[in-house]
Amino acid sequence: MTYYMDLLEKGGRGAYIALGVLALAVLFVVLQAVLAYGRGTSRSVARFLVVIACAGAAFYATRIVGRAYFPNKTVGEVLKLSSTRFAPIMEAPASELLLPIAFVLIFFLLSLLAVIPFKLFCGIFGFSYERNNGVTRGFAVLVGAVHGLFTLFILMLPIFGGMRMYERAAVEKPTSVVADIYDRYFEDTVESPLYKYPMEFIGDRVMNEFAESTK
Q1: How far apart are CA 161 and CA 165, in angstroms?
Q2: 123-171, pLDDT tens digit by residue?
Q3: d(Cα 142, Cα 36) in Å, to the nearest integer?
Q4: The CA-based dihedral angle spanning residues 52, 53, 57, 58, taken in that order and rounded to the nearest 10 degrees
Q5: Which residue in 21, 112, 144, 207 has the fewest CB atoms around it within 10 Å?
Q6: Handedness of CA 92, 192, 14, 173 (dihedral sign)
Q7: Which residues pair with 93 in a beta bridge?
Q8: What is the pLDDT of residue 76?
Q9: What is the DSSP letter of 82?
Q10: How far is residue 69's CA from residue 73's CA, in Å, rounded to a whole number?
């Protein structure tokens, strides 16, 4: 939290963007924690496992989409935009921007379709709302919090991927217009824990897999 307290004192557009991401994280955690409290441990764990399965299925489906529709294309070849401000995005492989967006869309579609199987599964195994107590509901809140962060990261992956493009461009050309945009708007988020650790352990690998799928 020290990092975010320092951002409050620092101010500026970049700091407020990073704080906005933190606010979204808190919102997702609270919403999923409340839902999990009502579900109880068994239903919350089952729902989270379904969501993880949907994410896995969406990942493989997105790689298929990449091989079929984005072979060796840059974003600029798909989206015609001419501006130095958007150069890192336009020059990047389409897989780095468009495939994460496709991944998010496929994930949420699968999550909606999985609601009915989830309810049937809980009914068959007797995972009811009534069979809970203070302990099971308390543990469910923890599961819900993790569930919320997991969902937020999936939702933010295309945005984080775009920030990663600007970060690379700023390193390559530290005195360019793009570097100035990165410093003003994205650097505080890229250096924040909510970006750094998820991207280091999962996000970068997923993005690299998407890139490989188009080769």
Answers
A1: 7
A2: 777 777 667 777 888 888 999 999 999 999 999 999 999 899 888 888 8
A3: 8
A4: -30
A5: 112
A6: negative
A7: 74
A8: 73
A9: -
A10: 9
